[in-house]
Amino acid sequence: MENAEVFAPPFQLNPSTNDVHSYSEPDKVRVRHIDLDLEPSFDRRTLEGSVVLTIEKAPRHLTAPLVLDTRGLSVHAVEASADGESFRNAKYEVGSEDPILGAPLRISLLPQESKVRINYSTASNATALQWLNPAQTAGKKFPFLYTQSQPIHARSWIPIQDTPRIRLTYTARVRTPMGLCAVMSVGNNPKANCGDFYAFSMERPVPPYLIALAIGDIGFASTGTRTGVYAERPVLQSAAYEFADAEKMLERAEQLYGPYLWGRFDTLVLPPSFPFGGMENPGLIFVTPTLIAGDRSSVSVIAHELAHAWSGNLVTNATWSDFWLNEGFTTFIERRIQEDLYGKVRAEIEEVLAQERLAEEMRKLEPRDQILHIDLTGRDPDCGTTLVPYVKGALFLKSLEEAFGRDRFDDYLKRYFARFSFQSITTEEALNHLKNNLLDKCPDVAVQVSLREWIYEPGLPTSAPMAVSESLNRIRKQAEEWQKHNVNHLRTQDWSAHEWLHFLRSLPSDLGSRKMRELDETLHLTQRTNAEILHQWLLMAVRNQYEPACPRLKEFLATVGRRIYIKPLYEELVKTDAGKKFAEAIYGTVRSSYHPISQATIDKIVGGHNGSERPAGGKGL
Ligand code: BES
Ligand code: ZN
Fold first, then answer.
1. Cβ(276)–Cβ(305) under 8 Å?
2. 351-362 confidence digits (pLDDT tens)
3. In the list 53, 324, 338, 475, which could disulfide-bond 347, CB 3.0-4.6 Å?
4. Does the Cβ of 277 fall within 6 Å of ligand 1?
5. Which-ligand-closest: CA of 617?
6. Exposed, middle or buried by CB within 10 Å (0-12, 13-18, 19+), for 604?
């Protein structure tokens, strides 16, 4: 990769942008680069070591302190240097801990000082870190550690200006015990052998939420020249099969939006407790093993995380109120890639399913949370992770694509990425660019698009271009027929996973135990291994108090930590007294096996758990 300086834009932060989720003051003193040196202790569940921050001061603020975000960190020493060689002890102060934001770390510096070294260790309950026992891994022999920094968890493992307004390059030295392997969100070297020491270098500036690390008994399998999978060895081959299309996706995305700038595009399959479907860590996306269905039915998540290489990693939301710029653009591009690779029929199916989920979720959300440019003042940014930024955001872009035509809109997106590469932008900046470069060029088309309604108002505009799928309509008819007759009339032989899912979702929620049993006996739903189908079936089992599925439900809740699955199951369980007891009992035993992010969400639903150090956010994904 070229020298980082080539890509690091000059000191240009929009001074009117305010990130309410960070104590840092990057307009005065800004971190440009960090060198990490860390060693994990699996026994004590801490990362320990140092970070050297290279900073840049705005000319008018040469005496301003460096303000960093931290959460639960133990700071052992803070030193400053002008030349990066001789360090002196610096005066510092840790402010009081806010339940959402953590604590500011203010470091006094001399005007000429540009390097700060901090020795520190992380708390055993750091919100970014999940420490897994060997029993929680596929191989069962070695422990596993991984990080999840988005949205504001980087501060729980690195003292840093934890705001997407800034970008930094980084290097890291990581010592690993027991011959375990370490990987990070940089171009990893698939040929590197496991040893006890790893060195990494991210040469393109990234927002702090994209810094990621995983340590475990991880192997590699290639799926193409620039793509491959990292996974625990027992799942390596099935993962390579499932994600075989990654290379084709990468090629198509590049044709559409310009060169992929992150070196390799690898996928790391995490143990099942990973709280998300996927995370777009550059060069190495992190994904849940629940995507491995054996039928490649969940590869849209790979397309999604790939799309973030442009929308998110290259052009980044400046604050978490602008999150829709990351997720709405990405969901739109994900569909665009799906359509090109797998055809319109499949893309429409996935779009309809997502839009149905959005409609369901919207019914439960307060109006203020239905707005794309969401106000998160005083709130956990996790409150903004609903389907609104994703699906409503993508619908907005689709409405532009339909109004201006695909060719013109493809071209617009390509120019948007080129214009804002390696920048963090606000909704306002994105909209100004859109006005100047697309809307104002064709005023007669632009009148059809109400930016105010789409971006600043709750609900969906009546003109929203909702998707229709003939194939799902046929499935819905079969579901209706089945209710009148019985299972024998179903023609399920060639149903795809999505069609199965839609079939189940088309059935009434109060089906009753007898009908549930009938379905299960013929279609063996309790035994399904496709996580989407199984999850939907288990939800129905809870709603209908279908006892035979109980052991499978317990097993699912005990192994899978993906929040989008477990959250609705617990929510459904606590609706009845018996379900609540069941939920409390199972959660009591499995809570410690969930990632702190999922724990925070489920604590709020099941209650009676105050192990969480911070108010539980987490509405959606
Ligand atoms: N960046 C998100 C995951 C995320 C969002 C983590 C907010 C923390 C805070 C990732 O790209 C994502 O959107 N994942 C989705 C999958 C996608 C296909 C909808 C998920 O995890 O469900
Ligand atoms: Zn995403």
1. no
2. 999 999 999 999
3. 338
4. yes
5. 1
6. middle
The encoded tokens of residue 515 equal 């009908």
Residue 564 CB less than 6 A away from ligand 1: yes
Q: What is the pLDDT of residue 3?
A: 42
Pocket lining: 305 vs ligand 1, CB cutoff 6 Å = yes
Is residue 137 predicted with pLDDT exceeding 90? yes
The CA 10 to ligand 2 mean position distance, Å, reads 28
CB of residue 383 inside a 6 A radius of ligand 1: no
> Is 305 part of the annotated catalytic residue set?
yes
Q: What is the pTM of this model?
A: 0.95
Answer positive or negative: Cα dihedral of 34, 257, 285, 426: positive
Amino acid identity, residue 78? V
Q: Mutation test of ligand 1: which of 304, 325, 386 has the most ligand atoms closer than 8 Å to its C-beta?
A: 304
497-506 and 470-484 are packed helices; what angle lies between their axes, rounded to 10 degrees?
Answer: 50
Number of neighbours of residue 203 by Cβ within 10 angstroms: 19
Residue 609 phi/psi, 5-degree rounding, is -125, 120
Average pLDDT over residues 500-525: 94
Going from the Cα of 323 to the center of ligand 2, the distance in angstroms, rounded, reads 9
Encode pLDDT of 92-136 as tens digits: 999 999 999 999 999 999 999 999 999 999 999 999 999 999 999
Pick from 456, 422, 390: which is nearest to 309 by CA?
422
